[in-house]
Amino acid sequence: MWALHLIMHPKFGVPNLSRFRAYKNGQPIYSHQGNMPTVTFGEAIRQAYAEEMRRDKNVFLVGEDVGRWGSLYRSSRGLLEEFGTKQVKDAPISEAAIAGCGLGAAMMGMRPIVEIMYIDFITISMDQIVNHAAKWHQLSNGRMKLPIVYKTQGGAGRRNSSQHSQSLENWFVNIPGLITVMPSTPYDVKGLLKSAIRNDNPVMFIEHKALYFEKGEVPEAEYLIPLGQADVKRSGNDLTIIATSWMVTFALKAAEQLAQDNISCEVIDPRTLWPLDKETIIRSVRKTGHCLVVTEAPSEGGWSGEASSVVHEHCFASLKKPVRRHCGMRTGMPYGPTLERQCIPSADSIAEAARGLMKQAPSA
Amino acid sequence: MTELTKFYAEMLLLRQFDQLCLDLKKKDLIYSGYHPYEGQEAVAVGFCAALRRDDALLSTHRPHCHAVAKGCTLESVLTEMMGRVTGCSGGLGGAMQFLDIDHNFYCGSVVGSNLPIATGIGTAFKQQGGDRVCMCVFGDGASNTGSFHEALNLAAIWKLPVVFLCENNQFAEAMPVKEFVACERISMRARSYGLEEITVDGNDVEASRKAANEAIERCRRGEGPVFIEALTYRIRGHYVGDPESTYRNMDEIGGMREKEPLKRAKEKLLQGGVPETELKAMLQEINQKLAALEEWALKQEFPTLQQAIDHVGIALDNAPEVRGPQSLAL
Fold this sequence. Notes:
Strand order of the largest sheet of chain B: 2-3-1-4-5-9-8
Strand order of the largest sheet of chain A: 6-5-7-8-10-9-15
Largest interface: A-B, 61 and 49 residues
Number of helices of chain B: 13
Helix content of chain B: 40-55%
CATH topology of the largest domain in chain A: Rossmann fold
Largest sheet of chain B: 7 strands, mixed
Oligomer: heterodimer
Radius of gyration of chain A: 20 Å
Strand content of chain A: 15-25%
Distance between the termini of chain A: 39 Å
């Protein structure tokens, strides 16, 4: 049977389609009228780019191989042909210059999307992002708008070893003035990217390299997903699993396994790591009394600790067990398919961590 | 008034303004590191003052005279350095990092960072189709950063309307340029990236203005970026009270004072028949103006904590209640 799960949000003027969900066998089904096209994550990005570039000629994409190649995972293919070099700019391998180019252009009224091919390379851009893009709005007393999307991709899953597989999102969550977004589905990436492009703050938009060829339903009609709003990817009553990016996929699979053990999981995807939708998390944990936080990034000094603290600070009376974190190992990512999978959470390991949490003595 | 008289008046204002700032720093009324500008005034007046208001100027950690030359008011620049709310960044930036949107002036305190930003401003100006120009000032030290090289290449391949102005004052903090740059002239680096380059005596205000006009016009015509190396000399330390004798022979300063831009301009004016009394009256008028400025500045308020944290980012309007107090401003 289909369990229709509708959560209305009267405070939002724009209908939030992601809330209009049905679930079948634990998998979300969009209760949109008519059949929705199924597209890849990369295609959803391409659609968002194209729609925003058509809508506003100030929107432009700049980065390494975004034009001729259509970017590494083909998420901008065909755009150079449609929009030309004014809106699609192939840049040299110069991450500091590219990041600064976005900032300078935004200062003068443009809406740049700066693509940094791998998040590992964003280390070269950090001066521009942290020292300048994140500071100038404040130094202008709120007058200067800086609508920049710093778009990149991180994480393991493509056997690329330790300089092409890092999860560095925690750095950006720690910088006042930045918004940090990590989408997990084709539907979310399109709606969030469009919102990020229209937002007047610098937005760190971090995709996951393992997700580009994942498929999902994306409506043909235009929609936006507000930044700062979490999504309940699966409803449940016993355990709240907060998972980000690629880990959402595994958390949903783990929830299936746990359902066999009569553990009903609610899976929350924050989608925006900061500003954090605390309300959705708090509401869920007050209901379930248990919380597991799953990230691919190592737990130490990370956002997973922030999420855990939010739960402890707001849900202490409801918690039946301490919050547990299940995160990637604190290691440089080893090479090859076998070892890298052993260093990050999987559906099995999440399920095991969840069972451990549920069995744990309350005082532990 | 001849052009040189006008330049002299502008340089004299900057010299006296810099001295006022130095005095305020010594009284601990400017809080951060303060980087004196004495001896480099011909660069500010020759180059920065050659821009239109709608052109952009990116400056450095030694920005106050560049800002005034670009048209920012003395009031907004001085009180910014003093951390008062009337400063152009509301007193939140201080002596090394502030911006003035109305005068298209921006500066920051990380050496070399402004060159990449200049490529973005240049990209926007080019795309928008007008004839606006971005000028980016940096020192000899910045020419050793990666940002310098990335930005020059990007500006050159995209033919951006950017004037890169290397204000070579011979020292990067305590590093003499002759020891820390191996090539003969820094402008040689620009040539290797395909930029037009001009090397100019940065203590000669007339030559500086001529070079500025040439570079700016070239950018306005859409002929791509220009690199200028303006040779000058930092008469004072990197900051007030730095251990200067560790990196330069103190005797050389005396010789450089003979070549500093105000002295040279003054000699030329006197030779040209401008009466000394006129120049003295000019100084007196400036000093009176700055005394009044100081008196006014000391009465200005400091920003409140609330004003300080009000604009960290633009709050998301869709869900303010989900963010909690510590995240109000992103």
